[in-house]
Amino acid sequence: MNLILAPLFALFNAPFYRQVQKSRVSQGILYMIVLSLVTTLIMIFAAMTRLMPAADQFMRWVQQDMPRLTWTPEGLVMDAQSPYIMVHPELGPLMSFDTTIQDITIDEMGDVMMFVTARRLYVRQGLNQVRTYDLMQPATQLGEGERAPQAVSITPDLVQQFYDSLKPWVLFIGAVFFFVLLVIWKLLVAFLYAWVGLLINFMRRSKLGFGQIYNTTLFAMTAAIVIQWLRLLVPPLSLIPFGILGSIAVTVGYLFFAVKFTEEKGAGTPPGVPGQSTS
Asked: Where are the alpha helices (H) located in the chain, listed in sequence order?
């Protein structure tokens, strides 16, 4: 089976599905891994052409608007007057700095997503939930004989350098996790669709085994996956409603075609009863 041409044949070719029903399940799993890899590459392309430019623009705003900070063993020092609030032109207040205090409450955070004090970083994770990070932790976890630095400058240029060095790693690690989870998800979803294939299988005279149906399902999911590719590659198409219900409808339709309409003429005809057809 040619896995390169398989996505094309899986869209319209009944003889191809007959061949699939005679092949090993491992080929279907390999096929889904290939489709998931292509999906991951398309996601990387979409991220680099849409998400990354927006992230770069956001970091340019951060670089222009953030105050200069200096970390010391006693706490953060800021070169601006406290409190200092970073207000994004579109998103509104995002981050507040007040190095004259050490601790705050949730109510004192206001509407900002992050709040920095002399010794703490507060990150909002919900309406009534805030996670706290100790900014002095590096100084308290020194080994024997180690001395904490007296001062470390946190400048906009340093933040930009950190972002530039972190960006490719985030993209790579995110792509790996996305690919692995996508393969697992598709194989599990195919298992659920296969039970629908079993119901369709009752309409056949020559019944298929569950392994054959599962293998057929992996290829019948092609159309829905291709539609997802097109929606990622052509942004205007993403405005057309499709979603989970559309994916289910397309996949079940192809599964019906791949299970029911691939039954060869005369298959399952009892001996001595000529002229019967299952097409």
From this structure: 6-9, 14-22, 25-46, 52-65, 106-109, 137-140, 156-201, 210-220, 222-233, 243-260
d(CA 204, CA 269): 11
Among 214, 229, 220, 207, which residue's Cα sits nearest to residue 248? Answer: 220
Q: Is the dihedral of CA 231, 232, 236, 239 positive or negative?
A: positive
**pLDDT of 149:** 58
Q: Please list, in sequence order, all residues whose beta carbon lies within 8 angstroms of the beta carbon of residue 278, skipping any fewer than 6 positions away.
A: 204, 205, 206, 263, 264, 265, 266, 267, 268, 269
Using alpha carbons, select from 219, 193, 191, 209 the residue that is nearest to residue 9: 219
Tens digit of each residue's pLDDT (9 = 90 or more) over 37-68? 999 999 999 999 988 999 999 999 998 898 99
The pTM of this model reads: 0.77
d(CA 179, CA 39): 8
How many CB atoms lie under 10 A from the CB of residue 187?
Answer: 16
Q: What share of the chain has pLDDT > 70, as a percent?
A: 89
Please give the pLDDT value at position 229: 93
Paired with 175 in beta bridges are none
pLDDT bin (cut points 50, 70, 90) of residue 269 is: very low
Q: Is 221 helix (H, G, I), strand (E, B) or coil?
A: coil
